[in-house]
Amino acid sequence: MKDEKPAPPIPAATVILTRQQAGELQVYLLKRNIKSGFMAGNYVFPGGVVDPEDRDFNGWRANVDLDPSGIERRLGEGLSAPEALAYGIAAIRETFEEAGVFMAKRDGQTAVDTGRLCALRMSGALSRGWLMRQAITEGWILELAALSRWSHWITPERMKRRYDTRFFLAFMPPGQVCRPDERETVHGLWISPEKSLADNLTGEIPLSPPTLVTLHELLTYPCLADLQGQAEIRPWGDERLPRLVPLKKGVVIVEPWDRQYHQERIKINADTLHKMVLPVGKSFSRLWYNDGIWKPVGK
Predict the structure, then answer these.
(1) Does residue 253 share a domain with residue 180?
(2) Could you give the 3-state DSSP secondary structure of residue 111?
């Protein structure tokens, strides 16, 4: 309904996990379970909501690799140290829970035994609050310094489930292997941004809207070294709150950089959208949802 107030967005964190393979930059994508209540069946980056335990600033201070001022410098920029820490802890926790990759060390020197943890993860034995309990008991140091700022997304107001999500960038830790949890995520793959965008257009790898935009941004970086340089200096930037425009069949997402974004009413000719689908690499500010696929379209 028009007068219905938008649902408040829930804080969440996502990690763009990257690596260099056979001379090309690759990202790790996970397919969400078709029974999921949000972006069901879409390929996304690992991530999820910020849990209450992630917000225990004093509880985490001895088990992270950055002090409060370091947290603000690396992950802040508009976020206080407690807020940045909560998002960072959630990012590390969700990356392990969904993809099996753990950014942590013991006593700042040796890697945590991920084999034992992965067995617990795959059996569903990780209960809420597991990360803090195990970190304190076993002396784990979570590597917030392995995360870098990328972007800040807020789900469109017309959607029932809404998230206020910080997208972090991270590089694949050596000696670890990605694997979906086979509950929330049912398939995972390493793929180049260019191929993932091409396979989205064919319907082979259906991408969520923020994932699609992020992969398009990553086309700018041909190799990991280029991306690493950007990661150290990239700010969060302006929040990205897309607008959702319903059509008789499907919907269109209008991104904040679209020239009509601030108009009270955005008129879209649905009959011509099929002729306006853009190829990989072409800049876009709109995404059209058609036959289960989000496709970039021109105006």
Answers:
(1) no
(2) strand
pLDDT tens, residue by residue, 54-64: 999 999 999 99
Three-state SS at 28: strand
Strand extents, DSSP E, 68-177: 104-106, 110-111, 140-142, 148-154, 163-171
Query: 140 with 247, same domain?
Result: no
The alpha carbon dihedral of 197, 44, 262, 5 has a sign of positive
Give the domain extent around 14: 10-239
Asked whether residue 84 falls in the same domain as residue 213, the answer is yes
Q: How far is CA 231 from the centre of its chain?
A: 15
Q: At 1, is the pLDDT very low, low, confident or very high (cuts 50, 70, 90)? A: very low
The last residue of a domain, from among 218, 239, 260? 239
Structure tokens at 43: 């390929």
Q: How far apart are CA 45 and CA 167, in angstroms?
A: 9
* Cα R_g (the chain), whole angstroms: 19
Q: What is the pLDDT of residues 51-97, one digit of tens each?
A: 999 999 999 999 999 999 999 999 999 999 999 999 999 999 999 99
Same domain, 206 and 250: no
**Domain shared by 229 and 246, yes or no:** no
The model scores a pTM over 0.85:
yes
pLDDT averaged over every residue in the chain: 93
d(CA 206, CA 204): 6
**Considering the domain boundaries, does residue 1 fall inside one?**
no
How many CA within 13 A on the CB side of residue 19? 15
State how far the Cα of 134 lies from the Cα of 97, in Å rounded to an integer.
14
161-177 pLDDT, tens digit each: 999 999 999 999 999 99
Instruction: Mark whether 231 and 252 lie in a shared domain.
Output: no
Q: Give domain status of residue 33, yes or no.
A: yes
